[in-house]
Structures are given as structure tokens and as C-alpha cells.
Design goal:
Elements lengths: L3 E2 L2 E2 H5 L2 E4 L6 E3 L1 H4 L6 H5 L5 E3 L5 E3 L9 H5 L6 E3 L7 E4 L3
Antiparallel strand pairs: 1-2, 3-8, 4-7, 5-6
The structure holds iron/sulfur cluster (2 copies).
One iron/sulfur cluster binds next to helix 4.
């Protein structure tokens, strides 16, 4: 990706981000609910591209490198599809200065 935002290259911006992975997923996605979803708005809404459509109409989701922005939770209107909790202390996304 070579996108720029306000003159800062995407790769430069991402170089200031740490992901401290917790063994406990802070977002879980119910594949059974997603299987009956035709809109799949999460695929385009997630800035980290963590929702991937499968050839059989389902969704693959990986919580690693999640920005914790909450967009998927806001745009998905399917009851029970997304379960959200915050990461444990010391885990998740950390933005470093400089
Ligand atoms: S997370 Fe929500 S929007 Fe995305 S496929 Fe599942 S039900 Fe559809
Ligand atoms: S919280 Fe944001 S980055 Fe994380 S999975 Fe949802 S939309 Fe993607």
C-alpha cells in the first residue's frame, strides 16, 4: 500500500504502532451468524482489513492487528455477530510517539 494521509506515508505512520497481542481475543465473530449475512459491510469498513470473505459465503476474522476502532461493531447490525470486550491491560494497539 502506498496511500498517504496528510503527507505522511502509510508505512511511516504504521511504524509508530505496536500491537501487543493478547492470547484472549477481544473481538470474536460468530461465523454461523455471518454465513447468513449478505451485506458483509465489515469487509469494507474495517481499516485493518481483518474481515475476509470466503468462497462459500462465510467470513474469516483475525483479531491480530486490530486498531480497536469499533467500526465493525458499529456497522454490523446482525444480532450476536460480533462480541466486543477491551483487551487486557498492557495488550492491544499502542501508538508510540516519534
Ligand atoms: S460481522 Fe456482521 S456485517 Fe460482517 S459478515 Fe458478520 S454479520 Fe455480516
Ligand atoms: S475494531 Fe476496527 S480495526 Fe478492529 S476489527 Fe473492528 S473495524 Fe477492524
Amino acid at each position: 500500500m502506498n496511500a498517504e494521509y496528510r503527507g505522511i506515508d502509510f508505512e511511516d505512520r504504521m511504524s509508530t504502532v505496536d500491537f501487543r497481542l493478547s492470547e484472549r481475543a477481544h473481538i470474536s465473530v460468530d461465523a454461523a451468524v455471518c454465513r447468513s449475512c449478505t451485506a458483509q459491510v465489515c469487509v469494507h469498513a474495517c481499516p485493518a482489513k481483518l474481515f475476509v470473505p470466503t468462497s462459500d459465503g462465510g467470513i474469516l476474522f483475525n483479531y491480530e492487528q486490530c486498531f480497536e476502532c469499533g467500526t465493525c461493531y458499529e456497522v454490523c447490525d446482525a444480532e450476536g455477530a460480533i462480541t466486543w470486550t477491551y483487551p487486557d491491560g498492557g495488550h492491544g494497539v499502542v501508538f508510540r510517539q516519534g
